[in-house]
Amino acid sequence: MALEERARALFSGRVEFLKSAPQLKFLPDPDFPEIAFCGRSNVGKSSLLNALTGRKSLARTSVTPGRTQELNYFEVGQPTLFRLVDMPGYGFAKAPPKVVEQWRRLVRDFLRGRVVLKRALLLIDSRHGIKPVDTEMMQMLDEAAVSYRVVLTKADKIKASELEQVVAQTQAAARKHIAAHPDVSVTSSEKGLGIAALRGAVLDDAAV
């Protein structure tokens, strides 16, 4: 069975919320491979998770940036084959410094210490490209030696010529980071663009 077809069948099966971990001590036991999703607040992380899994409300979408301040775990497969980790969004302007520092510590320690973390998906809004806060996240992933894919979201919201430019710029930026995968994924949760290919990539990254 082709990778994308196998991934579609798997994601259309059991995908269940496991738990939220506001601190590292609440993380589930490292029994399964993990794929983490990270990105700026309102980048479309929840929408992408819902599109990948074919659900409407697996991950809660929020109009309030920075609402998710914990690591949310989802199990995939029956029996469980791997887990998806929805990481708290970053770059929210209205959060107090103490909250930002808590976020930074939680994310940094999680990335550095999670041996079962196979890959991170770093989501970038196609309309804005890589922002300074995204570069900071890329550096954090580099320092933690966590391999990551850059995923452009909301690709349907800009013209094809602009998208082409953003993809080229994003690939050029990714090549400067040691932990970044050379390929950039282009997606639209709303239109389904690139979702099947990304499902296959996630399955491949989880190596199950």
Layout of helices and strands:
Layout lengths: L2 H9 L3 E7 L12 E6 L5 H9 L17 E6 L5 E5 L10 H17 L3 E9 L6 H13 L3 E6 L6 H15 L5 E7 L8 H12 L2
Parallel strand pairs: 2-4, 2-5, 5-6, 6-7
Antiparallel strand pairs: 1-3, 3-4
Q: What can you tell me about this protein's structure?
A:
The structure is a single chain. With 208 residues, the protein is of the alpha/beta class. The protein has one domain: P-loop containing nucleotide triphosphate hydrolases (Rossmann fold). Helix content is 36%, strand content 22%. The protein has six helices and seven strands. It has a seven-stranded mixed beta sheet, sandwiched between helices. Helix 1 crosses helix 6 and helix 2 crosses helix 6. The chain is globular. It starts with a helix and ends with a helix.
